Amino acid sequence: MSELHLKQISEEQIEALLRLQEIVFMNLKQKDQLSTLTKEEFKRILTGEGYMVGVFCKEQLIAARALLKPRSEESEHLGLDAGLTKDQLNQVVYQEISLVHPEFRGNRLQQRMGNWLMQNLVNEGSSYSFICATVAPTNLASLIDKFKQGLEVVALKEKYGGKLRFVFLKDLNNPSNFTVLEEKEVELTALEEQRHLLQKGYRGSELKNEDGRYRIRYQLRSKNESGFNML
Known about the structure:
One of its GO terms (molecular function) is transferase activity. The chain has a seven-stranded mixed beta sheet with strand order 1-2-3-4-5-7-6. The radius of gyration is 18 Å and the shape is globular. The mean pLDDT is 91. The chain has helices spanning 14-26, 39-49, 78-81, 109-123, 140-148, 191-199, and strands spanning 4-8, 50-57, 60-68, 92-100, 130-135, 152-159, 163-171, 180-187, 203-210, 213-221. By secondary structure, the protein is α+β, with helices and mostly antiparallel strands.
């Protein structure tokens, strides 16, 4: 759609962000798929603790996506869920909230915004080594997005006040020179089986669609010298 364009969002557009978030939330059949942000949390991202890109149709904000620089002292830091050491937490950036107006779904806007944000990190010469994110097991669009960007499932646990989430991780520096010891494919809905595999050290590396049935490929891999599974 030629009338759509991407640009960085400024603090002056917080009210438009809040309106977009409300529209997206009210149109969700499963409300727990989205962990909404407060005005202060949006302000934190827009005033130096992250990056946010928006998609505009003419002058209307119709989609937004953010990266957040988490504080390393956070008690529920996703890096800890992903098995990183405390010394590595300051090298983590989060893929944060992603919003697309219901009337504009199907235009791959989430993917386009994700590519823009990642390129922005590269252009700024970022020192970040790890990307973390969370996704509800029922949020198929976001699961597809994360796997396409090379993130992998490293945990399944309750976050944000009891909401079940996959925790994703991507190592930006280490090449994929691991050895796969074992592979299993598990139905997306088989959450307890996936939790068990993750606790044993498996990583969810791929989402497969077989005639509308979604399965995640899990791999048990050799370990690198630092002691955690290479991703």
